[in-house]
Structure formats: structure tokens, C-alpha cells
Amino acid sequence: MRLTDHEQAMLDGGHGEAAARAMDLLVRYGEALGAERLVETRNVAGAFNASTPSVREIAEDSLDRVFSELNLDSDDVVEIPHVAVPTCQLITGIDNDNFATQGVDPALADLQLRSEQYLGKRGINLMCTCTPYQVGNVPVMGEHCAWMESSAVIYANSVLGARTNVEGKESTGAAALTGRIPYWGLHCPENRFARHLIRVETEVDDMAEWGVLGYFTGFAVEEEIPAFEGLADQLSLVKLKHFGAAAASSGGVELYHMPGITPEAASLDAAFGPNARPEPVVYGAAERRRTWERLQNASDRKLDFVMLGCPHNSIEQMALIAELLDGKRIHADTQLWVHTPRAIRQVADRSGYSAIIEAAGGVVMSDTCPSISRKVPAGTRVIATDSAKQAHYLPAIAKVQGWFGSVEQCVTSAVAGEWLGVVQ
Amino acid sequence: MSEAQATPRVITLRGRKVVGGKAAAEALVSTQTISGWGGINEREGSVIELHHQLNGISFAGKVLVFPGAKGSSGWSAYWHMLRLNGTAPAAMIFTRMTTKIALGAVVSRVPTITDLDGDVFRLIATGDHVEVDADAGLVTITKR
To answer: Is the confidence at residue B3, as pLDDT, over 70?
Structure first.
């Protein structure tokens, strides 16, 4: 790889031991990719928090050792300085207020608090959500970013027109300390054209339907870039958030183009650029129904746990859940957890939504989700969720049965204590 | 004539080093991509994704032959934990380059190779003995 003088100086230790380890990792990673150079970034979103049982042993030594090993892949412990560029923490494993309800060991919750103090001192913004774009980190068109979190990456690339690959814990650690990331993949404009065409021939309207289309898309194109035709819905952040999260779960989609909706391609011609336009993959009524059915990994209807808010809920989703639960009571045998970023939780509290959800017997959680924490209420056998992503992952992670449906189906089922959703 | 056309017992392929080093072990072949976070158990080194063709099977100590990575950006962190837990594959051979597989291979520090000059899914079967010399860009397959 070709390095600039500044990058070479960092690699040679001229800017401290931590920056040298970070550059060493970026060079090994860039060469593995076949990248020719690095690119500057001033927007990093990563996972730095020490809050899992496997990290605990390493953390007992020092938090510098956690960052050195898990965020820089360094065998030696180096002193971690203040980050070089704006950096935020994504979702964590523990809700600082609800860790007892989660069933988290208080010693781990304490470790998370210590870890947060350590990270805050080094300039890492503790957003603690999978959706930084909902709480103030909104990259602009063309901005080079180094983001983890597949659902955030697909949103940043597609809806905002930013440029980021799906980074990992180590590459975001290295980017935070150097302001560099390999110039490869979706950083390069020539790699951002579509290769697949999906023709939508059935109505896709609410959030759940967008999740199902996303889930279909990931299976159809795997990690390649699709463009869409036939979309007629009025779109929103919430719908595209769920669509992208699903497409990044069933496949590895990191970028899509919806001419007339997303900013990078005003037409199908612009979406495909120099690439040949392939025969369309059709998403019709039969494909929709098969994909809905594919998301159901359950047979028992007695419901133990309902999970809402993956990716983390926006304020209007919190308002809708409060409206659906107003004056109702969740079944005594069923638990409902609603997940939203801490910053949005404050607005939900102030607007009275959290109080309505809690009065109905629900729990409003922040900072985490059941798949990340691997925590569900004790004794849970059957879950339901309004998230195709969570429906994809949680049954495997928590070894439970999982139903998928709309937010209305999930809330009604939580009140009834049994799954009432039907595939239509 | 028929003997000359039969698949030879030993096959050599050339490719590109992703992570240097040498290893030899039994092959485990998956024609499906693998998830990291949510797709594997990093303590056992096994695939846990429902409906996956390797569901419940351990790749620890094997030469893992697969198209590459999919799913969450926790991929590299899980491959990193495989190294720390001693449950990583002995070597990896993959066909589709992504940031997830590149970073995951780097931090697992397992000899890894890609861009081979033959169809690995046709030439390598689970149970074959496979030597990976990533520095030389060589894969030697001994059919079972």
C-alpha cells in the first residue's frame, strides 16, 4: 500500500505507540483487501465498550488492554490517547438503568460504567445506539465514514449518500486513533453502481412490509448492490431503517438505489452506470407471502416475550406504541421490552409515552437489545418481534421460537398473551 | 485415457495471500456464506445459524472453505474471539472479498488465501486433506 508521509510517520511511531499499532492494523487489513491506499475519515462509529463476560477477564488487567487487544489487535498493551477524529460508541450489551430486568450481573454493569468513563475521557461520544443517524450523527452526501453496524452502514450509504464499508471493532478502533481507513469498496465511486434489479409488483406500505421486502432483497442479491423499480409508497426514515436492517441480515447488502427516493441515482440508468442492466428479480404477492412465512420460526402461540425497537425506535415509533397500549394491560405471562436510543428516550419520557408503556406493564430499554446482550426474560420459550432483523437473529442466539409481525400485531399479542398474527 | 481424465489425487491451486502463514488440516466445505455475530458460537467454533448447511458443525482446527462472510459487522470481533478461545479454523479459503472477511481473517491471524485459479467448491470436498501455504499463494489438496 502507498502511504502518505503522515501515515508513514504514524506507522513508524512518530505519533505515539497507539497510533503506530493502529496503522499496523490498517496496513495489514488494507493489504488483505488489496487496497492501494488509505482515505481520510472524520466520522467513526464503532464498538469500544467493555461489557461482555468474555471481555471481563481482559478488563481485569486494564481498559487499555481491552482497547489494545480488541480494538487494535495489538499483542502489547499500549496507552490509548484521545481519539484523533469524531468517534461515537454504537449499541452496547447493557442498559445502565435496566440491567437488573435484563438479568445482567451487576459487576458487568459496573464494568460498563467504568468503561464509559474511560471512553468519554478519550473523546468517544457515548450515543450507545445502533442508529447514530437518529441522534445527531448524520453524515452528508459523499462523506467518508468508518462505521460498524450493518443496519447503520446501509442507511448511511443508501439513504444519506455517505461512503462507508461495513467496518469492524478493530478497524474502527484504528480509524478513531488515526483518522484513516482503507480506500476500497464503497469508498470508491466506481464500486457504487447497481448489479441487480428488483421489480416490485405488490404493495409495500407499512414498516413491516418494508422489513419483509428487505429480507427478500438480502436473499436475492446477497452482498451485491440492487436497484429497485415499481415502488409507489411514501417513504420515511423508519421504513428505510427496517428495510436496510433486514437486507443486511438475510444478505450482506451495504448499498441500494431507489431512483426518485435515494440521493445517488435519480434514474435506473444512473443507478447502473456502466454496468449492464440485468433481467429483473420480481417481488410479487407470492414472493411476499413466502418471505413472511420464512420469518416465522415458531409453532407455539403462547407468547413469553415481545421485543420492539430493532433497530432502535424513533420518537414516532415510541408514540405509536404508546397509542396502541394506552389504557391496556400486557398479559401477566408476557413481557414487552421497547428499545430506543437514550436521547430519544428522554423525549419519550417528556412526551408521556414511556409512562403509558410502563403503566401497561412494558419496559422501555436503551443502550442495548436482546440479540446484542443475549438476554431475554428468564424462562422465555416463544418471542415475537416487529423486526425482521431480530426475527432472523434472536431465535438462534437465545434458542427460542420466534414470530414476526407488524407492531400492531405484536402489541395486540402482548396484551392477549398469545401470538395473534397471521400472514396475509 | 479415462485414467488421465479422472480427478487426480493431488491438486495444486494458486491464489492470493490474505493473511500469511502455513497450515494443513482436514477441509470443511460450505457453499453458503457464514455470519459472525449471531451465526457462530465463538466458544465452540461452530455454526449456529438456523437452516445453515453447517448448523451445529464445528470448524475449529479445519481448513474452512467457504464463499465468505455475511451479516453483522461483529464478524471480525467474533473471529478475533475464536483466536483468543483457541477455536479458530486452521486455515481459510474463500472466494468473495468483503471488509468483513478481510478484517476477520487478519485478526484471527489464520493463514488465509483467496482468488484461487480453480473452482474450490468443485475441487475440494469436506474430509480432503488440504495444505495452505498463504505466503507462497499455494493450496495443495489431497483427495480423501
So the answer is: no
